[in-house]
Every structure is written in C-alpha cells, then in structure tokens.
Design goal:
Strand content: 15-25%
Keywords: Methyltransferase, Transferase
Protein name: Methyltransferase domain-containing protein
Largest sheet: 7 strands, mixed
CATH architecture of the largest domain: 3-Layer(aba) Sandwich
CATH topology of the largest domain: Rossmann fold
CATH class of the largest domain: Alpha Beta
Number of domains: 2
Radius of gyration: 23 Å
Structural class: alpha/beta
Shape: globular
Strand order of the largest sheet: 5-4-3-6-7-9-8
InterPro entries: Methyltranfer_dom, SAM-binding_MTase, SAM-dependent_MTases_sf, WH-like_DNA-bd_sf, WH_DNA-bd_sf, WHD_Rv2258c
CATH superfamily of the largest domain: Vaccinia Virus protein VP39
GO molecular function, one term: methyltransferase activity
Distance between the termini: 54 Å
Number of helices: 16
Low-confidence stretches: none
Order of helices and strands: HHHHEEHHHHHHEHEHEHEHEHHEE
Helix content: 40-55%
Mean pLDDT: 94
Length: 360
C-alpha cells in the first residue's frame, strides 16, 4: 500500500518560508513590470539591438537614473538580458511577445493590478476594522486598466468567438436590433459593435462618470450615431428597466462588483424581448473556496476581490458578492432572475472567464 508522508513541521516551515520569499520577489517583479509597461520601456526595447541605459532612456523620453535602476531589477528578475562588459541591455523576443503588443496577449497589462490595488490598502484595512467599503472614486485608473484587459480577452474574439456562441446573433445584428451593455465601463465592446453593425442601435450604462465620458468622446470622434452612453446606477434596474426594450443584453466582467447583482439580473431579464439573448462574461471560479485551490489565478483574483470588487459593492451598501462568486452561484442567480435556458462555455484563449448564453 502506498503511504503518504506529510512534511515535518520544520520542513513545512522551511518550504513555506521559501515560498514567501519567492512571493516577495515576484511581487517586486510585478511592480517593475507595471512601470515598464506604463513608461513604454518594453515597447522601446522590443526588437531592438542591445542598448545602454542612456540610449534607452533617450529613446523612451525618460530619466536615465530611473531607467538604470529599473534595468537592474529586470536583469535580476530574469526578464531582461545584459552584457556587463558593454553595459548594454536587451529584451529577448520570447519575453517581448508576452510583455508588449507583439504577441497574442500582453501580460504586463495585468501587472498593473498589483500597484493599483496596493494604493488603497489603507482604505481596505480601515474597512476590515470598521466595515463599509472603498468607493469607486478611490480607483482613478481602474477603468483604464480594465479597458486594457477587455482589449485582450473580449475585443479580439468578439465577432469570431463570443457573439457566435448565440446561433444566428451575428445575422440579427447585421439586420438591425437593439443592444444594451450594462456596466459597460469605457464601452469598447459597444463601440466596436456599433461600427461593425450600423443597422443596429447600442446603449451603454455605467456608474462611472469618467468611463462614460471617455466612451462618449470616442463615439463622437468616430462619428458613430447609433450608440449612446449614460451614467446610470443599476441597483434598482429590476424596477426601472423598460420591459422588452432590447434584443441583446451583454455584461463583460460586470456583475460581481454590482451593489445589487440580483436586481441587475432581474432587470436584464425584464428588459429583454421574448426572443432576446443575454450574453455574460464573468470570472471562471467555483463558489466553494476549497475547489479554487488549483485555479491558476485564484489567489490573485481573491486579492482583487478584497481590494476592489467586493469592497466597491459594500461601499454602496451592496451585497459585496466578490470576484470569486463562482459558477454555481452565478447559475443560481440567473435562474432566480427568470432565465430558463442557460448555457455555459469557456473559450480557448481565456481561462479566466466563463461565458453564459441566457434566454428568457
């Protein structure tokens, strides 16, 4: 019979210490990666011959001393290579494909969450002690980062993979239907659809003045007259939604941080025409903590929940559902909202999200 030998307490402590030290290093790497992304240093380095720190700083329009110290961290972190004799640095092509727009996914985008959420740590600690939540106003860059996230998970496959999950939907959009995106953020998905399907009309609702202002400006600049955006609190959408007004409703990563997600889902059901479709993208997870142990981003997503998604809901006196509400709870909420037919999909490019196709 096979025997399983548990680690001794001393060995377990040693292994855990090594894990924590590694985590500290990797956290530092994420902070430096976010800086490299935001300053454009990765883009400048990608595909270039070796550069010294001054040449790199000049090309990027940055201060050399800061660039030199950043390069040190990137070399130690195994991201950037260096020739110490020549004093030059370069970004391997295999790394550039994951840290710039040269590849299928720019993972440097996600590194920004570490510093962004760390900036509200004092507020979150206060909430641990006093309750309540941290309001959206404390996250001035969140919609910008989420728009970049959406630009990699939603926009590239919107027409080829996401919308076709509902058979016949592309043809209906080409013929002309009414579409609503709830919690639309900066509305990039709507803007893309409005351009692709001029016969259809599109509406976007979001609580953020900043996000809606950005979307409205982009629509004006693009000359799109078939899309409108409105600042709207959706916590009472179950009562205020216009019955049967829309043929398609979408939410992209937009349910779990709502103040009252049940009300929003009931309102979406109310707003759909009898033959309407509700397309949902939301986090792939279980509603049970122990079943998320093997989730490739589970710990990070719980950190996002504590420091943003859960707390912004609680700040509005809401449910505080949290990022990791999970598929089981999502299905229960959708059934409670009145959806009779719900199909769940995962897309090959996006291990982080589930896609639900719901019909009244």
């Amino acid at each position: 019979m096979c025997q399983v030998h548990a680690l001794t307490p001393a060995a377990d402590a040693e292994a855990f210490e090594a894990r924590l030290v590694n985590a500290l290093n990797e956290s530092g790497l994420m902070l430096l990666t976010a800086i490299g992304h935001r300053t454009g240093l990765f883009e400048v380095l990608a595909g270039q011959p070796p550069l010294d720190s001054q040449a790199l700083a000049t090309a990027a329009g940055l201060d050399e001393r800061y660039v030199r110290e950043w390069l040190g961290g990137m070399v130690v972190g195994g991201v950037i290579e260096t020739d110490p004799e020549a004093g030059t640095y370069w970004l391997p092509e295999s790394h550039a494909e994951l840290l710039t727009d040269r590849g299928e996914a720019n993972l440097a985008v996600y590194a920004q969450f570490v510093s962004l959420l760390g900036s509200v740590e004092d507020d979150v600690v206060r909430c641990f002690r006093e309750g309540g939540g941290v309001p959206y106003s404390r996250y001035p860059r969140f919609h910008e980062v989420m728009a970049s996230d959406s630009g990699q998970t939603v926009l590239p496959v919107l027409f080829d993979a996401i919308l076709p999950l509902a058979p016949g939907l592309i043809q209906r959009l080409e013929n002309g239907i009414c579409v609503l995106d709830c919690a639309c953020g900066r509305g990039r998905a709507l803007l893309l659809m409005a351009e692709r399907f001029p016969a259809s009309r599109f509406v976007g609702y979001d609580l953020s003045d900043e996000a809606i202002g950005w979307a409205q400006a982009k629509a004006r600049d693009a000359g799109l007259d078939n899309v409108t955006f409105e600042v709207r609190d959706l916590s009472d959408f179950d009562a205020t939604a216009t019955p049967g007004a829309f043929d398609l409703v979408t939410t992209f990563d937009g349910i779990h941080d709502q103040a009252r997600p049940r009300n929003l889902l009931k309102g979406i059901h109310r707003s759909l025409a009898p033959d309407g479709v509700y397309l949902v993208q939301d986090i792939h997870a279980s509603s049970h903590h122990h079943l998320d142990r093997d989730h490739p981003l589970g710990t990070m997503l719980y950190a996002v929940s504590v420091s943003h998604c859960m707390t912004v809901s609680l700040a509005q006196g809401g449910e505080g559902l949290g990022t990791m509400w999970g598929r089981e709870r999502a299905l229960a909420y959708l059934r409670e909202a009145g959806f009779k037919d719900v199909q769940v999909y995962q897309l090959e490019h996006d291990f982080q999200n589930d896609y639900f196709v719901c019909r009244p």
